[in-house]
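Regression test case RT-17, inverse folding.

Input:
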C-alpha cells in the first residue's frame, strides 16, 4: 500500500507514547476522554520542524506531544488564534485547531488554509 501524496493533507508521522508520557497525561487534573497510546502528527503534510499531536486539553492549556526521530517532549500551548471567519466569539469548526505559534498552514476541523486567509 502506498500513500498518495497528492491527496494527503496531514503529515503521516506517528508516535507511540512511552510509559512516562502516558503517566504524565494520566496525572493531569482533567482526565482525557480516551487517551490514545499512539498519536498522529496534526500538522500539514511536508511541514518543517518537529511533528506535533494534541495529547490533552486542560481548561485553556493544550498539552501537545512534539517529536523528531531522536527525541520527544510534551509542551503546554494555547489555541492558535487564527479563524477562517474572523469576528466570531466562540471556537468553532472554522477556527485553527493547532497550537499558537505552529509552523505551516492553519488547520480547521475540515481543511487547511493559508495564513492570509485567516487575516
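Golden output:
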Amino acid at each position: 500500500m502506498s500513500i498518495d501524496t497528492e491527496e494527503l493533507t496531514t503529515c503521516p508521522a506517528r508516535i507511540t507514547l512511552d510509559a512516562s508520557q502516558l503517566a504524565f497525561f494520566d496525572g493531569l487534573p482533567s482526565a482525557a476522554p480516551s487517551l490514545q497510546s499512539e498519536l498522529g502528527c496534526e500538522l500539514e503534510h511536508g511541514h518543517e520542524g518537529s511533528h506535533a499531536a494534541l495529547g490533552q486539553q486542560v481548561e485553556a492549556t493544550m498539552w501537545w506531544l512534539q517529536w523528531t526521530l531522536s527525541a520527544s517532549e510534551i509542551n503546554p500551548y494555547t489555541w492558535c488564534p487564527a479563524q477562517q471567519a474572523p469576528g466570531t466569539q466562540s471556537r468553532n469548526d472554522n477556527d485553527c485547531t493547532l497550537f499558537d505559534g505552529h509552523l505551516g498552514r492553519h488547520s480547521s476541523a475540515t481543511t487547511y488554509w493559508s495564513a492570509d486567509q485567516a487575516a
